[in-house]
Write a structure and sequence with these properties.
With 224 residues, the protein is mainly α. The chain folds into two domains: 93 residues, no CATH class; 98 residues. Helices cover 50% and strands 4% of the residues. Helix 2 packs antiparallel against helix 3. The relative contact order is 0.09.
């Protein structure tokens, strides 16, 4: 038989891939997409050589086994400008296919890939920033609670400080602790605002009433 010398794998590859067909000049790409009942999409790619009149065909072969892993990127061909029907090659006119200039198509695909990578990187960054933001909120709560306790101690010691030197020394020590906590609170608040700017104020809601925090953090301060 004439086909005995042809390996089975070679025959299968020829059945799965598109045949090369001669075409004329002006490098173009024709992509035909047809949706069947099962949602499969067939793509026919045809490239033209430039200047030398030679015919070149890029054959796309579908993978036999479906890929598993992260979701694949879907290229939206509607975002890529197609060649006007009047500018298409004669053999492509009237076929109902979308024809693309090769350079325009490649740039459009690369742009969508770059956008997808940027969005994925941005999403990963937001997850990390949100975790850090939650930690900052915990620090803010802890620092504010400490300031409230310090203020209560100051209120308790103040009436006795005038008559007791020992209590007056304790009061001065507590006031220094309060000053340190207030400086810490300023740093935490600045970091919180920085993270909020990254998050855009949409992903994480502020869980604390800042007006009440400021009122409790710096209450009726005693004169030194």
């Amino acid at each position: 038989m004439p086909n005995e010398g042809i390996p089975h794998s070679s025959q299968t590859q020829e059945q799965d891939c598109l045949q090369s067909q001669p075409v004329s000049n002006n490098e173009e790409m024709a992509i035909k997409q047809e949706s069947g009942g099962d949602g499969e999409v067939e793509e026919y790619l045809s490239f033209r050589s430039v200047g030398d009149g030679l015919s070149t065909s890029a054959v796309g072969c579908a993978s036999a086994a479906p890929r598993r892993g992260p979701a694949l990127l879907h290229i939206d061909r509607h975002q890529i400008q197609a060649v006007e029907p009047s500018a298409q090659a004669l053999e492509l006119q009237g076929l109902g296919v979308d024809v693309y200039d090769q350079d325009v198509l490649e740039q459009g695909v690369l742009q969508q890939v770059d956008n997808a990578i940027h969005e994925a990187s941005r999403a990963s960054q937001l997850v990390d920033v949100e975790k850090e933001y939650r930690s900052v909120l915990d620090d803010l709560t802890s620092c504010t609670t400490s300031l409230r306790q310090i203020n209560k101690i100051i209120e308790q010691l103040s009436p006795q400080a005038a008559t007791s030197r020992d209590i007056n020394r304790k009061l001065d020590s507590v006031k220094r602790q309060k000053y340190n906590k207030e400086q810490q609170l300023k740093k935490i608040t600045a970091k919180q605002k920085h993270l909020q700017a990254i998050l855009g104020g949409a992903e994480v809601k502020i869980e604390l009433d800042h007006a009440s925090l400021e009122e409790d953090a710096v209450p009726r301060c005693l004169e030194h």
